[in-house]
Amino acid sequence: MKLDSNITAVITGGASGLGEATARALAAKGVKVGIFDLNEERGEAVAKELGGAFAKVNVTSEEDVDAGFAKIREALGQERILVNCAGTGNAIKTASRDKNSGEIKHFPLDAFNMIIQINLVGTFRCIAKSAAGMMSLDPIDGERGAIVNTASVAAEDGQIGQAAYSASKGGVVGMTLPIARDLSKEFIRVNTILPGIFNTPLLAAAPENVKAALGAQVPNPARLGNPPEYASLALQMIENGYFNGEDVRLDGAIRMAPR
Question: Which family does the record assign (predicted)?
Fold first, then answer.
């Protein structure tokens, strides 16, 4: 897909981190950028800077997602690109024993379901609604649209306490090929990135020595990933018309240890 001012993109979680970097990379190519995020102040600021549009969207809400797509499409036109970066995580063992009292607890199912709803169902909700919109467009050079999802290396190397997070990201990986096949006759491509340890707002408050220790676990280069590196791969997945149905790790060759 040729990236220029004739193209509109929607980036979920686009107000910070991987999503913001992708929004900036797309805008640098002339693409009209629409941002979904819960952080209204930051989202409005980034969208204004990029000459795009912002919608406050909780991806677990059908109403929010519908209203968000409607707002962006009215402002910028029907999107041909969707990049799903909205997501979160938690760290809770499946079952555990309190070190002091010996009390046995299990993973609260509400907390498990919340992660699934945001990371997996929220991603699918945005894919389905965006793809339906893309199908209304005429193909350009044999393409109607391109979708990029964000999973995690935890989909394959889940650590202690990551049952919910790994399940949600594993689901994103698992649905990539079927969705690409579902949309193949409509000329819409679907790919997923599995980032490793990236220097995103999730780590912003961590001390520098902690960041350095995390980066040292990466074989090569021995550092944290930078959001523009994610954005670079996302753009390659969008621009390369033969890139479809793939799940690609972007992790400096790390394989996560149990903890």
Answer: Belongs to the short-chain dehydrogenases/reductases (SDR) family.
Q: Tell me whether residue 165 is one of the annotated catalytic residues.
A: yes
Cα 34 from Cα 14, distance rounded (Å): 8
Task: Spell out where the chain has E strands.
Answer: 8-12, 32-37, 53-56, 81-84, 95-97, 104-106, 145-150, 188-195, 247-250
Report pLDDT for 207. Answer: 77
pLDDT of res. 221? 96
Q: What is the pLDDT of residue 202?
A: 75
CA dihedral 194, 196, 202, 204 (to 10 degrees): -140
**What is the identity of the amino acid at 138?**
D
Predicted confidence at residue 205, as pLDDT, reads 67
Helices 227-239 and 17-28, packing angle to 10 deg: 50
pLDDT beneath 50: ranges in the chain: none
Report the pLDDT value the prediction gives residue 81, as an integer from 0 to 100. Answer: 98
Token duo for residue 156: 């394959």
Marked catalytic residue, from 165, 187, 198, 230: 165
